[in-house]
Design brief:
Elements: H1 2-23, H2 31-53, H3 64-88, H4 92-101, H5 111-117, H6 125-144, H7 151-159, H8 162-175, H9 182-192, H10 195-206, H11 217-241, H12 246-256, H13 262-271, H14 275-299
Helix pairs in contact: 1-10, 2-8, 2-9, 2-10, 2-13, 3-4, 3-11, 3-12, 4-11, 4-14, 6-7, 6-8, 10-13, 11-12, 11-14, 13-14
Length: 300
């Protein structure tokens, strides 16, 4: 459990560093801050994804736990869309931002230590990451990209995003059992190491502007509740229908209770759509997810 707390401490510390740098005007507002997101989106995060997925074991991709997570993710997104259609009356980009915030979880810098030290097995983290990047990211990016005209162009834009291409390429390498040469892999790992710090510092710097829950309160609160309570509840229902018990059920629920991924905020900041909902949901779920996961652990 100490390593899990360490994972949370790392996130909060880097966010605080970004906030402090913004206070000192080292990280400027607006376009200056967004340069961190763009570098992460186009270079650092794709490097992290490829270097992680390329060395993973593809057998875990076909686990029923991954199926439960996939269904729970889609169902939770649809629930947010339904609620939004009735209560929020947002445009498609804002609604997609909220739907992604309610279902797209942090599978790396919190998910990895959680899987390793709470579940005792990191097997499911990389397949879940590929599911997000290869399947969900194109959909989310298509919904956020207001500049793309038409559904087909939006989907194509999503599939061409660097993070998505990296996920497909990494999976292809892993499935072929090809070993990436060290002179190729090592630089990508170095670049990938910059991804999370840049995203988190930009996130922290964004907190110097509009305060959390200053606007979009209803949508943000809904996304937060769905992420921490709704998605695990859906996962429990799906897992029960599929006959999962014991450690498989526990793994599915814990992973579905992870906080909203910073990548959601990075996408929103890159495409300038739904930034407030994504930022605030990431902030709230990061603080509240630990009690939620401890509750699940206590029940099991």
């Amino acid at each position: 459990m100490l390593d899990v707390l360490t994972g949370f401490a790392i996130i909060f510390t880097v966010i605080a560093a970004g906030w402090w740098l913004a206070q000192k005007k080292v990280i400027g507002p607006g376009e200056q801050r967004l340069q961190l997101n763009r570098i992460a989106f186009h270079v650092a995060t794709p490097s992290l994804i490829f270097s992680s997925v390329a060395v993973s074991d593809t057998d875990a991709f076909f686990s029923p736990v991954i199926l439960v997570i996939a269904i729970a993710t889609v169902v939770t997104m649809l629930i947010f869309w339904a609620i939004s259609a009735v209560w929020f009356k947002q445009d498609a980009a804002e609604t997609m931002a909220g739907a992604a915030s309610s279902s797209y979880y942090n599978s790396v810098n919190i998910g990895l230590p959680i899987a390793t030290y709470v579940l005792g097995d990191p097997t499911y983290v990389i397949p879940a990451l590929v599911l997000q990047m290869a399947v969900l990211s194109p959909i989310v990016i298509a919904g956020l990209d207001r500049g793309a005209s038409g559904l087909l162009k939006s989907v194509i834009a999503g599939l061409k995003a660097p993070v998505v291409v990296a996920a497909f390429a990494g999976f292809a390498v892993s499935a072929s059992s090809w070993t990436v040469p060290e002179p190729v892999l090592a630089p990508l790992q170095i670049l990938g190491g910059a991804s999370i710090p840049m995203i988190l510092m930009s996130f922290g710097a964004s907190l110097t502007g509009e305060k959390v829950l200053q606007s979009q309160r209803l949508a943000t609160t809904t996304a937060t509740i769905l992420k921490l309570i709704g998605m695990p509840a859906v996962a429990w229902g799906v897992a029960s229908l599929l006959g999962l018990t014991g450690s498989d059920m526990y793994a599915a629920l814990i992973l579905c209770a992870l906080p909203t991924a910073q990548n959601v905020y990075n996408y929103a900041a890159t495409y300038r759509s739904g930034e407030v909902i994504c930022r605030d949901t990431v902030f709230l779920t990061t603080f509240l997810s630990l009690p939620a996961m401890l509750l699940i652990a206590g029940v099991f």
